[in-house]
Specification:
By secondary structure, the chain is α+β, with helices and mostly antiparallel strands. The chain is built from 16 helices and 30 strands. Helix 7 packs parallel to helix 13. The longest helix is centred in the last third of the chain and has 15 residues.
Length: 576
């Protein structure tokens, strides 16, 4: 009954950016990782303060502070702000793993495989997993030159043994040491954070904008990427017989990076943003991946940063951008159907009846903001999800009720013959085009539509509990609340299109780093600061999050507080 950890850690919709206005203004940073929302949250806010012998100040004891959020059980502050530097994190969506189909040695198929024509034995090891209040679980792990055999673990079909290559499975102290060094007092600016810390993180692949108290703007990527052989794209499993082995590693200092120093273009506002999009230009010397997020959020972030260039060093500007609920998908799809550039849009408009025409005019006049209470957002998504059921053969093969959102865009701009056949099958008589099928669904919904409010009747946010979800006790720890936005909004709601279109994934924490106020972080948090369901702090920040409110937390301890906590050169103080 517990939901999958990989679903919890799915970060395909995260936003982070750094910016500064013209005229030597101070810099701003923003971070907004999107995850499955849980109660208690997987993030824990903490503040670490300590004194160190500052070599740049003659060895004098100097106070250093760092605050932000981290994952319980893993040391350090993972997204946050120190005395000198702030950083935000998104997933780079680059390709750092591969699956290999091993070719069994016919003479010893259970114990050996072939590599470059030579029989190579599997190595095995036994691992014992301790189970609290239960019997130990003993498993035998079979290893190869390509990594562990994961056929059973991933429930992959035979007949091949499938091995997994991942930097995260290799012995590696560099990455952990680098993550711990993010809080180091020797990291005094954004360039040092990039060069001395983040470029040593081999796994996972992050896309990280950084800024500092000197107003530098820096972007970097993490992850040990590889040079693949010709014919090996990384998109599909390959034969692991030596033919397509890696050609080497891509040097970390050749990964995409950008540094806009404080001295650069004093008369021009500058910014760097990342939102799981492709972050390197065409012509870059390496291919790092293929499966990037469609640039709905990235494009909107850049648009709003450009439109607000004069106020990029103002906190309220970045609050507004983080809370932007524009449905960029609705804007795209409605825009496609509002022009005569495509035969399917012409067919759609020609097939609308009176009720359909009235509602389509309403959607055209809609500002595309998927705010709580919007009837337009509800109508749009109830219609769109029916479009995404049209490729019935594809959804059945994928074990889903709906296909990807961009399928509908292709269906109405450049449909294939198979798409047209799928569309025709949904129409009376089995004849017609995809534009006509879209209009048929639209007309039917318009004639019988019962008004629903977005975020209230549809798109409510469900905050799950990691341990008790799906059990009779879930009601004690789980909450449901109103939610705005959709999957394409900066203020994301990654909804399940079934039923009442509920969402379980959204912004897991919003943080803003204002270097004109270096002692604070401004944040919004969907939950509370306690994991005790009977505590008044279990969900004390949830209502504020729903209402788009922020709170300020202190990142620098004053000397009196530090002394009261017993601070000294040898002690560290962690304050929740």
């Amino acid at each position: 009954h517990h939901f999958d950890l990989m679903d919890l850690m799915h970060l395909e919709a995260s936003n982070a950016w750094v910016a500064r206005a013209a005229g030597g203004a101070t810099s701003m940073g923003a971070s907004d990782p999107h995850l499955q929302i849980t109660l208690p949250s997987i993030w824990y806010y903490s503040h670490l303060t300590f004194k160190f012998a500052d070599a740049s100040n003659g060895g004098a004891l100097t106070q250093h502070d760092v605050g932000g959020v981290g994952l319980p059980g893993i040391p350090g502050i993972h997204i946050g702000k120190s005395t000198h530097v702030s950083w935000g994190i998104t997933m780079s969506m680059t390709d750092l793993i591969d699956l290999w189909a091993l070719v069994a040695d016919p003479a010893n198929p259970d114990t050996h495989y072939l590599h470059n024509g030579t029989s190579v034995p599997f190595t095995t090891r036994t691992e014992v997993i301790k189970v609290k209040m239960g019997g130990d679980k003993t498993i035998t792990v079979k290893d190869s030159l390509y990594g562990p055999v994961v056929t059973t673990a991933l429930e992959l079909p035979g007949p091949y043994d499938m091995a997994l290559t991942s930097q995260g499975l290799l012995p590696d102290s560099t990455s952990l040491n680098a993550i711990l060094s993010m809080i180091s007092p020797t990291v005094t600016n954004a360039v040092e954070m990039r060069d001395n810390v983040l470029l040593k993180v081999k796994m996972p692949g992050f896309s990280i904008p950084i800024t500092d108290d000197q107003n530098n703007l820096v972007y970097t990527m993490t992850g040990q990427h590889v040079k693949r052989a010709v014919g090996h794209t990384g998109r599909y499993p390959m034969v692991g017989n030596g033919t397509f082995d890696y050609l080497g590693n891509i040097p970390m200092n050749e990964l995409p990076t950008l540094h806009i120093p404080a001295s650069a273009s004093q008369n021009t506002s500058r910014y760097i943003a990342a939102a799981n999009n492709k972050i390197y230009p065409d012509g870059y010397q390496y291919t790092l991946g293929y499966d990037y997020a469609y640039p709905f959020r990235e494009g909107r972030i850049h648009q709003l940063l450009a439109e607000n260039s004069a106020t990029l060093s103002t906190l309220s500007t970045h609050m507004t951008i983080q809370r932007d609920t524009r449905s960029n998908y609705a804007a795209l799809l409605i825009g496609v159907l509002s022009v005569t550039d495509y035969p399917e849009s012409v067919a759609f408009n020609a097939a609308l009846n009176a009720a359909g025409s009235s509602w389509f005019n309403t959607l055209q006049q809609w500002d595309r903001m998927a705010v709580i209470g919007s009837t337009e957002a509800s109508f749009f998504w109830l219609w769109a999800r029916q479009l995404l059921q049209i490729p019935a053969d594809a959804t059945k093969a994928a074990g889903s009720d709906y296909w990807g959102e961009m399928y509908a865009v292709t269906m109405l701009t450049n449909p294939t013959a198979k798409m047209q056949a799928s569309c025709a099958a949904t129409l009376p008589g089995g004849n017609g085009t995809c534009g006509q099928a879209a209009a048929h669904i639209f007309n039917s919904q318009a004639q019988s539509y019962e008004y629903k409010s977005w975020g209230v009747d549809l798109n409510q946010l469900v905050l799950k509990n990691l341990m008790l979800h799906g059990t009779p006790f879930a009601c004690l720890l789980e909450r449901t609340t109103n939610k705005d936005g959709d999957f394409s909004s900066i203020d994301v709601a990654d909804s399940d299109l079934g039923g009442d279109i509920t969402t379980t994934a959204a912004s897991s924490v919003r943080q803003l780093y204002d270097w004109s106020a270096p002692n604070t972080i401004t944040m919004a948090f969907p939950g509370g600061v306690s994991g005790n369901p009977f505590s008044k702090y279990f969900q004390n920040l949830l209502d504020g999050f729903v209402n788009d409110e922020y709170v300020k937390v202190t990142v620098v301890s004053d000397n009196a507080t530090y002394a009261l906590a017993g601070g000294s050169a040898e002690s560290q103080v962690i304050s929740p």
